[in-house]
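Ticket #4471: complex job returned nothing on first submit. Input attached below:
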Amino acid sequence: MTTAVVAAGEARSVSRKTLILIAIWAALLSAPLWLPLLGGYTALAGRVLVFGLAAMGLNMLLGFTGVLSFGHAAYFGLGAYGAGLTLRYLAHSTPAAIAAGTLLGGLAGTLFGLLIVRRRGVYFAMCTIAFGQLWYYLAYSWNSVTGGFDGLRDFHREAIGIPPLVLDITDGGTTFYYFLLAIFAGAVGLMGFILRSPFGRTLLAIRENERRARFLGIPIERHIWLSFSISCFFTALAGTLYALLNNFADPLTLHYSLSGYFVVMTVIGGMRTFWGPLLGAAVFVMLQDYISSMTVNWMSFVGVIFILVVLFFPRGLLGMMRRRVAA
Amino acid sequence: MAQVILFNVTNGLIIGAFYVLMALGLSLILNLSNVINFAHGNFLALGGYLAFTLSPVLGYWGALLVSPLLTALIGVVVERLMIRRIYNRDPVYSLLLTFGLAFVLQDGARYIWGPNGLPMGLPEVLAQPITSTLFFITWYRIFMVAIVIVTVIGLFAFLRYSRIGLRIRAGTFDLETVATLGVNVRHLRTLNFAVGCLLAGLSGVLAAGQIGLNPNMGDDLLMPSFIAIIVGGVGSLIGTLIGGLLIGMAAALTTVFYPAASEAVIYAIMMAVLLLRPRGLIGEEGMMS
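Support reply: We reran it on our side without changes. The output follows.
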């Protein structure tokens, strides 16, 4: 009988999951239609997608491996600078820019991950913060190449394809949004595939009980390293898209404040849920957009959001929903 | 050339002294409570601004004494109201909380004292150079280094010989046992946080006289302090001390030969330490690993 109940529950949650999935994709696909009605603009939707992807990449590590990185802005920013520098100096090709930026950020993360996989908890976090700031100072002070404090300008996204088959994404409108959405969909699909694979399940086991996983013979350090590396690649990909979105890369994309934003987006949405970070990104981007248009003291408001989320809202939106369903 | 090097060595000593004060406070809180205090740089700024406001009333020396204590008091309030609630939770929450707090404190300082830099007045005695040949060494610089030395010796004596200090050190290794032995761990952590804030406030007053005041004056000191802790080794205060002096000196000496790399060199040191000696120069094996 118990099995029947469980099976029924599972069936219900499966159909529930499908419903949520349909709702998410419907909302994303129709965003250019309904967003202007709410006073938003399409670039805002693009920003939600980009930050959502970055936060989801971070969440692979934070929520699904249980390892705390507070320096993911570094890989996001490296992606942005990689894409920008490629477009400006190397090739006028959008795909090449995306590939180069993703590789730059991802490889930096992979190499750094090797150094810190044995650290845990706050110590791991501290190393990621400090390493992230290195790139901030580099971008800040290497004026001749990166544009320094003013950021990297004088590049723009290029149309894709060979004539006559050309996708023109150079104007900021709906076409570019769907281009972003397509890449987002591909990346998120891959992420879901990785998390469902035996490798992804092993990451969950490490999160739940590292010692037991070690006793089972799982090479913990290698798994955490791989998870860190993959997560950096996703975040770097988001960074390249951010550079394309703004036609601009600035040192603040490397600053640890942005790392903090990614973490808070993840927590607002729900750390242990797959779609939570996207929802958190949507909430955070909208709030920030609204607050910074209302007051110069937006920093206080953002800080208060952080504090309130931690003290009263630690499970996040989806986490709370899931708990209610379980109860 | 000799003078340039001497100038930068004294600079390194002073910068290193600031890193040490900041990093010791951070390290105390990290060791006992497992919290990275992102707002530490803002407590530093708070100490400086309080001294700025108090010095017309109390005079410089009074402000030097009172404003670190006030900073510690504010630290107690913050710990009781917020930080205490997240001690037993995932470290991500303590990071987010202190991060948000840093934003609020920075914006608050900007709101109260204005966004522009403010100068901090010094007593006549301290503003003089020691001799005309060594014009770049003012008495203030000597004074700062002396205060830092006295404070650090005082802190280590406190941790070694006082009952509370011993409990703090014991709690660093095994808080559960310390609690079982009848020590009120809640009070211990509050007090420890206050000591950390006291050190931040003191460095704030000292820094105000050197570089002036602005709302984000602590930010530039925060990252090097993290690195000082990583380089010295988490869990060891002596390590933090050595780490702070080392990176301060390294940054200043790099300035002599290749100024653009002065920021990068401390990161290079951190990477080298993580690569060759992951636990830090004198960190305990197994602490937080």
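Residues 2-276 of chain B form a domain with the ABC transporter involved in vitamin B12 uptake, BtuC fold (CATH 1.10.3470). Closing as resolved unless it happens again.
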